[in-house]
Structures are given as structure tokens and as C-alpha cells.
């Protein structure tokens, strides 16, 4: 049977996976719903769309590696591992860029307004808040995941 620590690690991994999935769906929906609704920061929808779609691809591709391992499809496993590695590196670079773009937008946050959509300083309030919130949450979840993975590797 599984040890207590193994059950705890599996539970935490499932919870983090659900957190990632929820975050990626929120990013995709918000980026698509409010695509041209932030003239003051036109990158906000793109930050959400690219992050959400890349995250969803990773979320779907990683379990496929385990499936292909069970089926012993070595060539597909190799291709998928290469694809996941490239996607993960892109996702990491995109997350760093998104944080830079979001924090460098702090100057425009002072002039950003949410009432008059005809002005160039307008940004849809849900898009602005979701962009800030999802990337901060993503940073926290990525940090926790890194700690868990490195802690689990050190314990092995």
C-alpha cells in the first residue's frame, strides 16, 4: 500500500493540477471575451490567450507521456517529451515576459480608467483584474510546484 507521504504528495499534485487547469481556462475565456477591450494595454488579452493555450497544451500533453510509457510507444514518447520540453521552456519565458509586461504597465495603471470605453485610457475592469490576478496566482503555483518537485527529488 502507499505510504502517508506518497498519498499527501499525490493529493497536493492533484490539487495543483486542478489549480493550473482552472487558471488556464480563466485566462483563455477572459482573453477571448475581452479581446479588443483594453486600448491602454492591448497586450493584456494576448498575455492571457497565449498563457492559457500554452498551459492547456502542456496540461494535456504531460499525461499523454505516461500513457505512451504504459503502451511502450518509444518513438512517440521521445517526440512528445521533446515537444513538452519546448512548450515548457516557451511557457516559462512567456510567463517571465508576461510579468515584465504586466509590471511595466504599472505606469499606465495610474491613467487606466474603467468607465468610458471610448477613451484610449480604457481597459475592461474584469480583463485588467484577471490579468493581474492570474499571473500572480500562476507565479505562486509555479513556485509551489518547483518546491514540491525539488523536495520530492531530494527525498528520493
TrEMBL record:
Q: Origin organism of this chain?
A: Adineta ricciae
Keywords in UniProt for this one? Membrane, Transmembrane, Transmembrane helix
Please list every transmembrane segment annotated in the UniProt record, as residue ranges.
Answer: 7-29, 49-69, 76-97
Q: Which domain of life is it from?
A: Eukaryota
- Name of the protein this chain belongs to: Uncharacterized protein
Amino acid at each position: 500500500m502507499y505510504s502517508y507521504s506518497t498519498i499527501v504528495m499525490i493529493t497536493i499534485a492533484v490539487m495543483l493540477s486542478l489549480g493550473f487547469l482552472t487558471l488556464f481556462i480563466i485566462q483563455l475565456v477572459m482573453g477571448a471575451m475581452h479581446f479588443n477591450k483594453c486600448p491602454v494595454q492591448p497586450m493584456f488579452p494576448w498575455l492571457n490567450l497565449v498563457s492559457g493555450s500554452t498551459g492547456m497544451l502542456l496540461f494535456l500533453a504531460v499525461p499523454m507521456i505516461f500513457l505512451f510509457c504504459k503502451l511502450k510507444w518509444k518513438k512517440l514518447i521521445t517526440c512528445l517529451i521533446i515537444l513538452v520540453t519546448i512548450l515548457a521552456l516557451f511557457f516559462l519565458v512567456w510567463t517571465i515576459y508576461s510579468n515584465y509586461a504586466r509590471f511595466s504597465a504599472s505606469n499606465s495603471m495610474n491613467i487606466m480608467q474603467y468607465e468610458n470605453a471610448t477613451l484610449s485610457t480604457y481597459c475592461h475592469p474584469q480583463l485588467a483584474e484577471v490579468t493581474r490576478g492570474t499571473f500572480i496566482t500562476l507565479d505562486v503555483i509555479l513556485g509551489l510546484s518547483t518546491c514540491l518537485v525539488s523536495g520530492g527529488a531530494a527525498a528520493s
